[in-house]
Specification:
Helix content is about 30%, strand content about 25%. The chain is built from 24 helices and 28 strands. An 8-stranded mixed sheet has the order 8-9-10-5-11-12-14-13, with helices on both faces. Helix 7 packs across helix 22.
Length: about 700
């Protein structure tokens, strides 16, 4: 049933708006063989019409469980133990399933992290969208199709009538997410729940989707519940924020208060884990939160954050703290909230003591240990003709040149499909180069890994994005780290176990992990094992392909600190691929910006983030979500999608999307390399003097 928006009037005849959603003391448990597991406890918040309320926290904190509880998607073993969920003034708890199903389809909509979870791969998109209107509104199919096309236009979908005839796999990930958002808005829902809707998207697509969410929020006056672990995204979209930890809300306030004046030590910890866009590893630090989120089966007797808190005292260990209002409309669940807020951003001494040593700056006069010149990696595409058809090639990497000196870290950034991963896979030997020269420590490596000398393989190792795809689930951690030690004969056979223990200590894991299987580890622990295995042979160069992109901010900070410590102790050279420009700026010495198989800009990290920019770099910087609600960020958005590498545009490959295109020369002639100085080069037709006049994309205010 659909309930109209309600107003109430108090004794002074003031009009008070009833929240679209009001959650009161919500508790959710899951039944298991060993008893009920309390996943969510005492959660309260409300969302007004036209407001975006975000919930943030590490994985396992209960964010998604709250969302699933609201729409009653808890599964057979999940149940709401206590509390109320008031939607437009009416309690949803205990309502019949049929009534809840109607409300979910008509007045509450949900957008999931993976759009393919919501899209049927065997149905055309148009059929899936029109079904929303024909079932819940009883609309005729022709009218429903017209409305769906109009909604796709509202979410800026190119050629919406054609998209309606396609299947989900025939459009990009960003377009899939737009279809899901359009479906969610078809019935003009009063509440839109979004569970990590931009996590898997490129930074440029993510920025466009976040802009779209803000625009639709104003247009439809919809209340939004936004779930994310990305603090930058939350700062961009939110009005208010609830910080969750181990199943409880530990802090709740406006986005500005939570980010600029946090009262709970967990919120402080999250903020200290995130690199700001202007930070680098030689002038600033990341402070990981020690330990991990406790299991709901084994919660601490006092404050749930006490085992990981650097401020904890005896009262914290013995006495639970209720969520209390420490100042108007700012709530925190901490005994020492006022004291922590007064101390400000200065970290405790024991946190400072745990910081890794800063790696030395690379010797700019040294000879490169890796030289790649005019690299090309093409993939043959199936010909349209069976006989005599002309061969076509996907030009994944097309004329790329880079150099690395010992101890240096080169970051590579760009959208999906730009060739980042193909380049490092060609260097490591997984992919066969089509052309170019590849020289590593004076030796030719332009051949597959199967034909390389064992000594070269030992000196060139890789850390992959997903450790689950590289760790054998049947072998223990100790066995998997010990294998390269045996194969490369790094240490004598009788010292292998001791060397594995040393590596485990370096990874901050310890000997108790030696006999564990991968399934017994968290995501961050698996990634540390992958790093330990990669450095076991003491390689000269480690290639890191998105090693922190899927990790919580605290684990991400710990892994970045670990990589810095490895660099400091072993002098390791690294190539670091990431889509988070803040992480790349913090960790890397030099940065290459790739677009459609070519480098658009390359130079020292600090030079890439200040004018002059390549127009593509400018757009990337404008799109990156920054965890600071007070930041001033120039609004630059790219239109369209990345063209196909099968048939890249002539001239400058970026001209089809470039907001600064200067004319026909961009369409017909390959740009020249313009030397800015100090190794900074830009691949663009726009004169260097004009590029120097560009405005700074990101301006930080002093929030001290």
């Amino acid at each position: 049933m659909s309930v109209d928006f309600e107003w109430t009037t108090d004794t002074d005849d003031h009009r008070i708006k009833t929240p679209i959603l009001k959650v009161e003391n919500l508790a959710i448990s899951y039944a298991t063989r060993t008893g009920d597991v309390p996943a969510v406890r005492d959660v309260s918040f409300d969302i007004q019409r036209g407001e975006a309320h975000s919930i943030v926290g590490e994985s396992g904190c209960g964010k998604s469980t709250v969302a699933f509880g609201i729409v009653n998607f808890l599964g057979r073993n999940g149940r709401i133990v206590s509390g109320r969920i008031l939607f437009q003034g009416q309690d949803l708890v205990g309502r019949p399933q049929e009534e809840l199903r109607h409300i979910r389809g008509d007045r509450i909509a949900m957008v999931y992290q993976d759009p393919m979870q919501a899209l049927n791969p065997s149905m055309r998109l148009g059929d899936q969208m029109t079904e929303v209107l024909t079932v819940h509104r009883g609309m005729e199919k022709k009218d429903a199709e017209d409305l769906c096309i109009q909604m796709l236009k509202r979410v800026y979908m190119p050629d919406p009538a054609n998209v309606m005839r396609r299947y989900p796999h025939q459009i990009s990930g960003g377009q899939q997410q737009r279809v899901v958002i359009a479906m969610a808005l078809l019935n003009d829902p009063a509440l839109l729940i979004m569970d990590e809707p931009t996590t898997a998207l490129d930074v440029t697509v993510e920025a466009a989707v976040l802009d779209l969410i803000a625009e639709l929020q104003k247009e439809f006056d919809t209340a939004i519940m936004y779930i994310s672990h990305n603090l930058g995204v939350v700062a961009r979209v939110s009005t208010r924020v609830g910080v969750m930890y181990a199943g409880e809300i530990v802090e709740r306030a406006t986005v500005a208060d939570v980010y600029l004046k946090p009262y709970h030590p967990y919120t402080h910890g999250l903020m200290r884990c995130v690199p700001r866009l202007g930070m680098d590893k030689r002038s600033s630090y990341l402070y990981p939160i020690p330990g991990r989120v406790p299991s709901p089966r084994n919660l601490p007797p006092g404050c749930i954050f006490e085992p990981r808190c650097h401020y904890a005292r005896d009262e914290c260990r013995l006495k639970k703290q209720e969520l209390r209002e420490v100042e108007p409309d700012h709530w925190a669940r901490c005994h020492l909230a006022e004291e922590i807020a007064q101390q400000g951003w200065t970290p405790p001494e024991d946190l400072i003591a745990d910081l890794p040593p800063v790696p030395p700056a690379p010797d700019e006069t040294a000879e490169p240990i890796l030289k790649v010149e005019h690299a090309k990696t093409y993939y043959e595409a199936p010909s349209k003709k069976l006989i005599g058809g002309k061969k076509q090639y996907v030009k994944a990497v097309d004329d790329v040149s880079i150099e690395l000196k010992k101890g240096e870290t080169l970051g590579i950034v760009g959208e999906s499909g730009c060739g980042k991963s193909t380049l490092v896979k060609t260097i490591i030997g997984i992919e066969k180069p089509t052309g170019g020269e590849f020289e590593f420590i004076g030796m030719d490596i332009s051949m597959p890994v199967s034909r390389r000398d064992l000594a070269i393989i030992r000196e060139l190792q890789m850390v992959f994005q997903n450790p689950d795809s590289t760790l054998n689930p049947s072998f223990t951690v100790g066995t998997q780290i010990g294998r390269p030690l045996r194969r490369f004969k790094t240490v004598p056979p009788n010292q292998i176990r001791a060397e594995v223990m040393r590596l485990l200590d370096m990874m901050k894991l310890g000997e108790r992990y030696y006999d564990r299987l991968p399934r017994q580890l968290s995501g961050g622990e698996k990634q540390r094992v992958g790093i330990a295995r990669a450095i076991a042979g003491r390689p000269e160069l480690v290639l890191c392909d998105e090693p922190v992109s899927s990790l919580d901010v605290s684990v991400q900070a710990a892994v970045l600190n670990l990589l810095m410590e490895i660099q400091q102790k072993l002098g390791t050279t690294m190539i670091f691929i990431a889509h988070d420009l803040s992480v790349v700026r913090f960790f890397c010495d030099h940065i290459a910006v790739m677009y459609l198989g070519r480098i658009a800009e390359i130079g020292p990290a600090e030079a890439i983030y200040a004018p002059p920019y390549h127009p593509y770099t400018e757009a990337l910087l404008s799109a990156v979500p920054i965890p600071d609600p007070g930041v001033e960020q120039k609004h630059v958005r790219l239109s369209g999608s990345v063209p196909s590498a099968l048939n890249p545009p002539a001239g400058c490959r970026f001209h089809t999307r470039c907001p600064r295109k200067i004319g026909e020369i961009c369409e017909t002639e390959v740009p020249p390399w313009q030397d800015v100085g100090d190794g900074h080069r830009i691949f663009c037709h726009i004169p260097l003097e004009e590029l120097r006049q560009m405005e700074t994309v990101v301006t930080f205010k002093d929030n001290a």
